């Protein structure tokens, strides 16, 4: 039985390998994730917000889509896999910030965000019930 940190390290190892080709559909995971993006986008078009956090953002496809629609808002992407954040940062999207971190230990003050989204990451938590 692996402990939580060992489990997280395995997850980070797998997503490090996937990062460079993630949005080319090579991994197959992105193909599944992107089915959710139109639904997330539609929900966001109905609400007022300024600061949004996408945790478990991967290479940041959802923040990229939202930024393209409305670049006046502040988007932040957080992911524990440094390589995913490296690929996301290389998009150089103005007004979008990226950070390496774990959603079980968010490196932000309370009330920093109006909206928090996470797409297809629960199954990667060692303790999803928390
Ligand atoms: C299937 S990808 C989904 C990426 C993105 N949400 C998307 O829609 O394309 C799962 C992501 O969850 C991240 N992840 C795994 N465990 C996490 C945790 N404890 N906190 C935040 N992100 C995590 C992985 O590094 C990976 O980038």
Describe the model.
The chain is an alpha/beta fold and 130 residues long. The chain has a single domain, classed as 3-Layer(aba) Sandwich (Rossmann fold), CATH 3.40.50.150. 35% of the residues lie in helices and 15% in strands. The chain is built from five helices and four strands. A four-stranded parallel beta sheet has the order 3-2-1-4, with helices on one face. β2, α5 and β3 form a beta-alpha-beta unit. The site of S-adenosylmethionine has 23 residues, from α1, α2 and α4.
Describe the structure concisely for a colleague.
The protein is α/β, with parallel strands linked by helices and 130 residues long.
Overall pLDDT: 92
**CATH topology, what is it called?**
Rossmann fold
Strand content: 5-15%
Main sheet properties: 4 strands, parallel
Please compute the radius of gyration using only Cα atoms. 14 Å
Task: Report, as a whole number of angstroms, the end-to-end distance.
Answer: 19 Å
Integer tally of domains: 1
Instruction: Specify the number of helices.
Output: 5
CATH class reads Alpha Beta
Global geometry: globular
Q: Order of SSEs, N→C?
A: HHHEHEHEE
Structural class estimated from helices and strands? alpha/beta
Q: In the CATH classification, which architecture applies?
A: 3-Layer(aba) Sandwich
| Helix content bin | 25-40%
Uncertain spans, ≥5 residues at pLDDT below 50?
A: none
Give the strand order, joined by hyphens, for the main sheet.
3-2-1-4
CATH superfamily: Vaccinia Virus protein VP39
The count of β-strands is 4
What small molecules accompany the polymer chains?
A: S-adenosylmethionine
């Amino acid at each position: 039985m692996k402990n939580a940190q060992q489990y997280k390290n395995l997850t980070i190892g797998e997503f490090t390998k996937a990062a460079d080709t993630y949005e080319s559909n090579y991994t197959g995971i992105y193909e599944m994730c992107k089915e959710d993006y139109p639904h997330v986008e539609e929900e966001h078009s109905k609400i007022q917000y300024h600061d949004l956090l996408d945790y478990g953002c991967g290479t940041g496809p959802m923040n990229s889509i939202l930024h393209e629609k409305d670049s006046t808002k502040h988007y932040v992407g957080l992911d524990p896999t440094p390589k995913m954040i490296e690929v996301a940062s290389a998009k150089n999207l103005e007004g979008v910030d990226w950070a390496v971190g774990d959603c079980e230990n968010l490196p932000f003050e309370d009330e920093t965000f109006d909206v928090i989204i996470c797409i297809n990451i629960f199954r990667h938590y060692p303790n999803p019930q928390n």
